[in-house]
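USER:
I wish I could look at a protein chain and see how it folds. I am handing you a single protein, as its sequence and its fold in token form. As I understand it, each token names a local backbone shape. I hope you can help me see how the letters and the tokens relate. The protein I mean follows directly.
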Amino acid sequence: DSKKKTIAKVSGMHREQIMQAGLWSEFCDYANIDNELSAGIFKILDLNFPESERRVMDLVIRCTVDPKFHIDRTLLCDHIETVQANKAKLLKDVGVGVEHLMSSAKFCGLLRERGVTITYKISKATGKSIPAIAKTDDFMNELQEHEDVQVQALAAARVGHKSTLEETRSLKLLSIASLPWEHFRPGNFASMPIPMRYGAAHTHRLGGEWKINMQNMPRGGNLRKSLVAPPGYAVVVADLGQIEARLTAWICGEETLLQQFRDKLDPYALMGGNIFNRPVDPKVDKMERFIGKTAILGLGYGCGWERFFDMVRKDARKFKINLGNVWTEPFAKKAVEIYRAANAHISAAWRRLDSAVAGAWIDLTAAPVNFGPVIISYGTITLPNGMKLNYDRPRRQIGEWANGSAKTEYVYTYGREDH
């Protein structure tokens, strides 16, 4: 009750307002109750935490509470102006108002006027049928390749105007940098914390915090460039090259692929060569290597040819790779078959994993199964570092696809929802 009374008093108020109202001490006491409860939870969970994870957690917290980066305010402000100008130009180019792009009904009306048949999908939130006009929907990607240039322009304008990520991120960075940090510096540069959430998903990956995800800054863009090192420091950019493909090969025992990495060969070009049945020169055969790269990075997790076909098209558009007339559905199917034949140990690992999930993961009486360095037991997956992923009430669920064919799903409860 006391907590509810405190939060009611400060609801809608900013830090300065709380202080002016003489409620800062009471608000701090309120906040510390949650801190103490969280500390108690941590002491319980820490018993099963690997030592290495404590170090990761410490680093994540320090990124926020002990900021080192500075932010270039001038660059950010100029970037915001450019983004807003580009959005205005998109509207002018297509000759419609922003209300026609932002309204789903009006946007679909514009498409119908140009003879486009709208594709629909089922909303995850409401379960109702809605137009598939989100930025990530296949239908929107198809519209951007439509034979009618006006349809292309409409789709590009909606995606460009709806996608205000650059603008909102820039404004958010400026807002965070304006906070009164201990290391605050007046002028165009100020301390910039890197807020991230430890264990954002049940897999314990890091996630965004403070309504921004600092892990997803566009490569080479002004948002990244606005993050600068303070005097006496330098920014070091590191990348775990080909980490998905390397880990998949290691866990599944795919020695041929692992040896290619050890020998510092080009697995992408080699896979492209397998798919096109000829040597692929990385400097010349850009499209062939791109398809080989997408196969190596995308087909290691059981992806089927239909999804792979769309994956290559989307990525080619994003990276401006000209696929010509080569990329067809039959060719995509052939590429998937070639990948699986060349990486038989990875394909076999899927079947072993299916068996482990169907047995040890859902059967309380079954013995644990070693899947390479990973251990699968009832409701639990133990990772190579000792971290345990726990799943509540794992079970097999029988149903059917939209076409009426049977399907088997393995579900568990996470929070209040089944997955």
